[in-house]
Write a sequence for this structure.
């Protein structure tokens, strides 16, 4: 990993000022509900991150108005899938991104210029994603925000790379989403699956005391397939035993064969690791529980979906544990989170219901900080800034490796547990020695 820049970022201090000035001292702390729009120890010595500490409030309203951004906007082109199954994972980041653009502009913009977000629907189709990304570039996009999955979102980053622009996925976690597969200006805000799965495995073995596991993985996309593989590698490395594995393909409506194979085991596992995504995720969990299997179930960030929690309900939504991008309550310990929640509620008239919202907010903030440091929107300069900086985000601490090492995101994993259909925060994990991507 490269040596990181140890500096305070002026932009983020301004943004923090806007957060505190706008929200006052009475943030919301209740458990979040579902959005209604479509949808521990570090392995290296800690470094000084981009600051999230706010300065003293501005003295007068006139001074705040004097800081209003001017000139041509810095254009963020975003592909947020509004139709198809990816809407569940792209629309929450969209809400966070739109809010971030508003607050950054209130704080003076970036390089004194306003941010502008233009967006198109990728329709959960890789070819469409690539085509609409090129349309955004033709419309003047300076940077690209890509969808939350490698199989669907990679064409957006490929188009950005062709145009020498930085592309940043909000939450794609496949290890394929990086510089080695997509180019030296391409990043993802999410931890890769090797770290996400390792975080889940460490909680399973060292915290929950699970000694044996059974893995069921959806083979339709790289996300769900690799998540199960990495869980097996890290769980067995820690001393656990995987006593069986099974697969299925998204779209299967009947999981009775997989369930019967689990029930037919001579010894039941301590935990099931089910690697899937909506809409099948809710179906397989409901059928598993309805068959009388009460074994704790673990998975990845696709479980972080309030609509999924509603599908399984309070009776079946118990002993579900998952690795995800953050937590929306004060227990997360993230500076300015409560102010973010208050801003979100004021804009959308609802509580944020999934940590995926944080990834959109953080993606815009990361791009803004990197552009501020680079002093321009030049793709090479912005990518260099992103490599050199370390970020302390609402979705966790983040540090990218250099392009030659894949732009691997070294990032904290949040562990959340669902009991009676209600989520609770377990803690942050930065796994030691996760599997090689």
């Amino acid at each position: 990993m490269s040596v990181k820049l140890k500096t305070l970022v002026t932009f983020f201090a301004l943004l923090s000022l806007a957060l505190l000035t706008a929200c006052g001292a009475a943030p919301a702390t209740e458990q979040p509900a579902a959005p209604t729009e479509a949808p521990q120890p570090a392995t290296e010595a800690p470094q000084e991150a981009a600051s999230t500490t706010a300065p003293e409030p501005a003295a007068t309203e006139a001074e705040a108005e004097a800081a209003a951004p001017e000139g041509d906007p810095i254009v963020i082109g975003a592909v947020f899938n509004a139709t198809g199954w990816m809407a569940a994972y792209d629309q929450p980041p969209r809400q966070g991104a739109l809010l971030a653009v508003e607050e950054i502009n209130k704080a003076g913009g970036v390089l004194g210029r306003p941010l502008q977000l233009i967006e198109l629907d990728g329709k959960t189709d890789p070819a469409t994603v690539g085509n609409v990304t090129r349309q955004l570039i033709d419309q003047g996009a300076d940077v690209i925000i890509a969808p939350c999955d490698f199989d669907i979102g990679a064409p957006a980053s490929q188009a950005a790379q062709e145009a020498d622009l930085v592309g940043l996925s909000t939450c794609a976690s496949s290890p394929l989403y990086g510089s080695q597969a997509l180019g030296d200006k391409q990043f993802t805000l999410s931890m890769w699956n090797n770290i996400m799965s390792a975080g889940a495995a460490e909680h399973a073995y060292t915290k929950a005391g699970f000694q044996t596991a059974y893995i069921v993985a959806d083979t339709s996309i790289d996300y769900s397939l690799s998540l199960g593989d990495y869980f097996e590698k890290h769980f067995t490395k820690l001393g656990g035993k995987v006593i069986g594995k099974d697969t299925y393909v998204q779209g299967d409506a009947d999981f009775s064969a997989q369930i019967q194979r689990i029930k037919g085991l001579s010894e039941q596992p301590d935990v099931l690791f089910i690697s899937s995504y909506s809409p099948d995720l809710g179906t397989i969990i409901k059928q598993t529980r309805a068959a009388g299997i009460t074994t704790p179930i673990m998975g990845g960030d696709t479980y972080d979906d309030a609509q999924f929690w509603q599908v399984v309900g309070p009776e079946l939504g118990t002993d579900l544990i998952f690795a995800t991008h953050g937590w929306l309550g004060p227990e997360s310990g993230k500076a300015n989170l409560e102010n973010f929640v208050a801003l979100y509620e004021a804009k959308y008239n609802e509580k944020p219901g999934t940590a995926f919202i944080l990834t959109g907010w953080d993606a815009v903030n990361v791009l803004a900080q990197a552009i501020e440091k680079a002093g321009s929107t030049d793709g090479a300069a912005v990518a260099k800034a992103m490599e050199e900086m370390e970020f302390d985000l609402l979705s966790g601490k983040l540090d990218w490796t250099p392009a030659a090492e894949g732009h691997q995101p070294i990032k904290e994993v949040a562990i959340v547990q669902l009991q009676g259909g209600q989520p609770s925060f377990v803690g942050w994990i930065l796994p030691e020695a996760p599997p090689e991507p």
Observations:
- The longest strand covers residues 241-248.
- The chain has a mean pLDDT of 88.
- Residues 87-106 form the longest helix (20 residues).
